[in-house]
Amino acid sequence: MGIYSVIGKNLAEVKDSLYHGRSGIIFDPARKALGFRSALTGMVDRPHLKGILDRRMRIGLPLQGEYAYISTLEALQHAGIEQPYLDAHEVGILFGNDSSALPVVESVDILRQKKDTMMIGSGYIFQSMNSTVSMNLSVIFRLKGVNFTLSGACASGSHAIGIGYLLIKQGLQEMIICGGAQEINPESTASFDALNAFSTRESEPTKASRPFDRDRDGLVPSGGAATVIIESYESALKRGATIYGEVIGYGFSSNGEHISMPNVDGPVRAMEKALSDAGIKPFEIGYINAHATSTPAGDRNEAQSIDLLFGKSKPMISSTKSMTGHEMWMGGASEVIYSTLMMNQGFVAPNINFENPDDATEKLNIASKTTPCEFNAFLSNSFGFGGTNSSLIIRKV
Amino acid sequence: MQNDEIIRKINQLLIDEIEIDVNQIHPAADLKKDLGIDSLDFVDLFVIVENNFGFKMKAEEMTDLKSLEDFYSYIIKRINPN
To answer: Using CA atoms, how far apart are residues B6 and B8, in angstroms rounded to an integer?
Structure first.
């Protein structure tokens, strides 16, 4: 696993932040100056890659590609995989990514100013496409297996792991680098801010993202990148790899209703499918990493969905978005990593800022504080615009 | 701009913008084989030349440039035609 997030630039830092309930949310004055309704955002430094990657590899990488390069380096190292292994085997890559706004804006700005496409240069095309992350990383790491990007809104990273799991289960690939990446810049979130979906609690940035809390008033956009190496059990055994978790269930569904308003039925069907695929009962899930982004409607619907399926067993629940903000295209992958770290370290990270439930969220067993907890399986939810839903179940091996 | 000044400026741009190793830069160097300048780098050279020398390179002329010396001569001719 590898992570580059607003709560830590590697696994050790992230584990520490999760344990201590640290927020990565800031107030960004540049957004206010641009006319944003909310200037809140998760923030992480831009990686310095000069001297690490050559110019040709760097100029095709957008911001989220840089994050993803760092998270993938850590994941490969964490998995004990070096370049000679990648050169000798058919390793694939599936990443979740659903925008690359900044290079599109910058290249069109150049065109409008210079009136000459030749003045755009050679890098922007490779930065601008949604497939930019898988496109670039497959070249940098000289990968020879499956190679594409999944765009499934805020469930992109989760679907990437799910599809990777299915390809391996089908015997079509032995190992796939999966993950999700999300750019952090005003250009990518301006039109989202226009929907009045972001929290405006600007006086208290670290308290703004408060999933499931009665006084939540919207999400906080965020980003970074997360990478997991998934492989067949036989491949892991052969390599003598440490196995941090086993993907045992993937469920997906579409709400079939509104483009932005969530419902209860779609998430229920995704979770049911994941449980069915995993061949386990709800009581065997010890922890749920909720999608809950801190919007009034989204959290309410997810709370009702979870209660319908897990109302009797009442597993521990938290939304790590309370600390990270909404990592959007990255979130489905990063939240699998956060939850796997918790499962292996025996704790549930707090849903910070959960102070008062409402009538829907009071039915859930939400961890408002860091809770020591041994669990053998968790479920991670990710939902997105268009009503796309993804649920993954990971088990301790 | 004097010719030697143009050559110094080209060399510095190749080092700073295309990240060519300073030790590889000599007039006889083949742009592709020795300096590793590929078709994508030529696209960036177009931008670099216009931003730093103030004229547009013509795509059909660029195909005739084989060595660094060819490149120097081309830029010098465009800046100092006489």
So the answer is: 5
